[in-house]
Amino acid sequence: MTKEFLRKHCKEQKLYMTPGLNDVLYLHFKGFSKIENLEEYTGLKSLWLESNGIRCIENLEGQTQLRCLYLHQNLVKKIQNLDHMQFLDTINLSNNGISKIENLSQYKFFLKN
User: Fold this and answer.
1) pLDDT tens for residues 42-51?
2) List of residues 6+ apart from 10 with CB closer than 8 A
3) Which of 44, 55, 89, 96 has the fewest CB atoms within 10 Å, i.e. the most exposed one?
């Protein structure tokens, strides 16, 4: 998930070329193994990362406006690094490797499984 790929993807999808103006980003079925280079996408409200090879929820510190996070059908084993997302109300982590759900009392999102 390089910055170059993200710029090209935004252009192909007819999204804004200024990263912070985009409120949605569709990055599903791209073969990513890691979430990275999204620092400039500070206006995202919905992020689609389903059906990749993502192992860890990470590098989303700039996503403070995020409301929906779709990470189903990945390789995530632990729910973590979401506490800075105060507006997050929907997250899909189905079909991952999560064996125990814990430490979610501070989150207000709706968990689909």
Assistant:
1) 999 999 999 9
2) 16, 17, 19, 22, 25
3) 89
